[in-house]
Amino acid sequence: MPELDGRRLWLVGIGGAGFSGYAVLAKGWGADVAGWDRNETPYLAHVRAAEIPVTVSPEPPEPPPGAEVVVSTAYAGRVAGRSRAELLAELVGLTRSIVVSGAHGKTTTAAMIAYCLDRLGDDPSFLIGGEVPQLAGNARAGSGWLVVEGDESDGTVFELPAEIAVVTNVELDHHATFASTAELEERFRRWAAGLPAGRVVWGDEQQPIDFDLAVPGEHNRVNAACALAALELAGVDRGAAGDVLTGFRGVGRRLEDHGEAGGVRLLDDYAHHPAELAATIAAARGTLQDGGRLTVLFQPHLYSRTVHLGRELGEALAEADAAVVTEIYAAREHPMPGVSGKLVADRLAEVRPGMPIGWAPSLEDAVQLAAALARPGGILLVAGAGNVDSALPLVREQLGA
Asked: Rounded to the nearest 10 degrees, how much is the dihedral formed by the CA atoms of 330, 129, 394, 307?
């Protein structure tokens, strides 16, 4: 197991999906770790379980004397220190690593790889951008392969020295970072060219697996094919990995089943790009009983993405039976004049005139509309990369559960 003994790290933004995992991994590999975040987040439960001190306050305190300060992207510029990309590159370089990136499917594919390695006795380390219930979290410090979800949104992945890489797909999703799909493709090609020859799995070259999975959707069959190809490069028997993979039950907020309320099945998904939204809607429909209504409550994510892909998002939602759109989740961006979630709703109305459609700037009002459109025997799918998952208990209340 890699050694970080004697290192003192103080992480600014420790409650994030990625940074919380870095903290757990670094602590498990011997570092003295502590950190700060402005908000309480679900990921901090894992950080505290690893006995890592956390400060939650409106403003960051002074770093501990002598600590190496590492700053997440969310707080870049507010506190001086190393970037998260630098820390991640260091962690990846300490051991055998499998890095999974791409526009869509990277969280699930990375989780599939880590799950198979775990069940086959490898004792993997992993850093995954979502909760994996069967692995008890989003990160672990082990003694085997390190499985990492690499993020292209800010170019972090292109600094990672992977031994094996997976590129699930290449599609423009971060318009504030890349000018075109061609630019993004070139960045991935340059990164792959610097990795060991023959050790890169390209998703567009994989055939969907031909056996049953516990997770639905054609996109997950491709994710599984990518996972098996990477595992084979890591020396894992493909047949043994395939047998194990049939038991994989998914990642949090990826068609996550939240039971029923008022006879309506509730699903939650992170889909925020048109291709992801279309795949998620198709997968959800594949689980519907004949005649059941598929209602989607969708929260667009980022002003830049909405202004560039608003039409495509509306077209993806057109494959549902009813839809409600709420206001954009700004995340790291500032509002753009004239840009709102209504752009998506308006495009949807153009594509599917007569379809039951709702637009509500507030999430609370959107919940009421979505609950009114849902029907017993059907599905209400909550989708988006922001805080739309907080609507689930409100939906349950509206449906009378």
From this structure: 30
- Angstrom distance (rounded) from CA 97 to CA 1: 13
Indicate the SS3 state at residue 374: coil
Q: Domain check: are 237 and 284 in the same one?
A: no
Which residues constitute the domain of residue 193?
Answer: 95-245
- What is the count of structural domains for the chain? 3
Distances in whole angstroms, Cα of residue 91 to Cα of each of 64, 146, 168: 22, 9, 22
The CATH number for 68's domain is 3.40.50.720
- Each residue of 181-237: pLDDT tens digit? 889 899 999 999 999 999 999 999 999 999 999 999 999 999 999 999 999 999 999
Q: Of the given ranges (297-301, 330-334, 353-357, 385-389), which has the lowest mean pLDDT?
A: 330-334
Chain length of the chain:
401
233 and 367 in contact (C-beta within 8 Å)? no
The whole-number average pLDDT for the span 287-313 is 94
Report the C-alpha gap between 96 and 92 in whole angstroms.
Answer: 8
Q: Cβ(47)–Cβ(20) under 8 Å? A: yes
Model confidence, pTM: 0.91
Q: Is residue 2 assigned to a domain?
A: no
